[in-house]
């Protein structure tokens, strides 16, 4: 009799710990959040906060970059500004590894949430007392955008592919004939740190304005076809 009671107690204890272990990972921490230990094990690092609004902010300026690439980079950086700077410096974001697909198998819902967040950000409400500044405002490029919203004549020519030319190499409307640049894709290494910083800033401005111009042209083409 005593042996049966002991076996029942052990069975109840085992069931309790199994249920607690099974529910602690998913119920308290939804997939993709920094507090989910399973996601950290799959990815190999502790993911940082990456909301649909953050993804939409990056996609608004760089619609050609895949959502998964943006999301994966934000999981590593946790900052829109850091991801944008990395994108501006390199011209691309690394594609996520296969482990990312196991952690986030469904990307359609992520795209929909990012698109919804992007649409919501374009409709200001009374509750939005301090809206997030755009990349044009953050990098103080308002003077380089004409009154009709398109990029002005100060935008260095760049077709959106290949290396990003420095602003000093030529001027012209984004989308015009691109300036010939080295085939290596590497920027010219300036002699001083001040010139290197200035060159990097000009390349950032060129990419932001060119991305904005492509987005405006895409929207105009969409309106014309509808």
From TrEMBL:
Bias kind Low complexity: ranges: 174-188
Region (Disordered): 111-200
Molecular functions per Gene Ontology: ubiquitin binding
PROSITE patterns noted in UniProt: CUE
Coiled-coil intervals, chain numbering: none
Domain CUE: 50-92
Polar residues compositional bias, start-end: 115-128, 137-149
Matching Pfam families: CUE (PF02845)
SMART domains reported in the protein's UniProt record: CUE
Name of this protein: CUE domain-containing protein
Species of origin: Serendipita vermifera MAFF 305830
